[in-house]
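Lab notebook, bench 4. The sequencing result for the construct came back, and we need a structural model before the next group meeting so we can plan mutations. Quick request posted to the team channel:

Model the 3D structure of this chain.
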Amino acid sequence: MKPIIFIPGIQATSLVNSNTFDFNYIWNAYDTLGSSIGSSIFGAYINENLQFNPLYDQGIETIIERNHIAKFPYENSILKLKNKLNKTRAYKNTPVFLFGYDWRMSNMESAKRLKIYIEYLKHKLQDQDIEGFRFITHSMGGLVLSCYLNLLEDDFSGIDKIIMNAPPFLGSPYALVHMVKGDGGLRSILNWAIGRNEDMRKVIRTYPGVYELLPAYKNALVYNDDNLPLNLLEKKYWQDNIYRDIELLFDSRLALLKEFRSPSGLKNLADLPKKLKDRMVIIVGEDDETFTNIKVDKKGNNRITNLIDLNSLNSGKDSGDGTVPFKSSSIYASEIKTLAVKKENFFDEISNNLDFHGLFLNDSRVQNIIQRYFLTEDADPKLTGLKNWWDTPNGSVRKVE
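Done. Here's the predicted structure in token form:
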């Protein structure tokens, strides 16, 4: 048996206050097309701050726990995979386990909880002949798994295969935009009109998980006047009004971010043994215009230091999946098989045009890659009639060299 563990992306696990009689939602995951479109128009909203110690909520009586995983972005693809496995004798009745997590917290903390969860599964399945766990991740879930790999102390014997989808290894400018202006785009206008936008951006500034999505690749942020780069690991490069009223808390979050970006936090996948890297596939999106580079004014008109020039975002677009830049998701292409899925036109892949990144696992090409890779030991291209097992008839999937 090779059980599958699925780890979703940020905001894809609903959160509830368990210290109530009916487990009140503080964050409801996107379960339907209507809820997803509604959130896109009216804006996501959450108002629970984390304490200085980010393991706890600020509300004295608030105890937040994970609830269900969003159905709309994932249910169809996971059920299709299960059905496909059940039709194959060798993988019939393969269990799929869903690891939801509190995405507000550090991915390092979520990795610790993942380790506990996997130990629980090992005991639960102790009467089964387990050959190793298989992992599917989406977006931030790839960071959780990468931190988990660091906790294994080079003992990867319990892992069979890994597929990471749209992983933001080096972050995305969207995280910084949310911290600066709230939810962004049309949502910002509507949130501002009903007085929620300022609340939203102040709340997410207390979430380590958002800090860990900040862009960390070369020249993600540069100054307008001299093009010198900024380093968000250093406080002196931050827009100062972001942290002015929460300076001690901000300092602690920045220290946690440095730990996350250190060798003891996020695992450098290039350092994994070749035997494990050969059992991994990374699937990334490309050719969707994605905010990639941001310009910064050293002093804004209102004397804010390091003022983010939000107007520069449109000129700083590059290839990606609409949320994660290609240069962030594809950094391990020379070490680990990385497959790029091209954004298609409206009639080829409708989900691409709704949200390429968010609905990545709904893409039929992504589903085919996952199924082919899991259904055979070597993903033999003869099974598909194509040159490579990941190929598509229209050539919209390529191996990144």
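Residues 184-195 have pLDDT under 50 and may be disordered.
Will bring this to the meeting.
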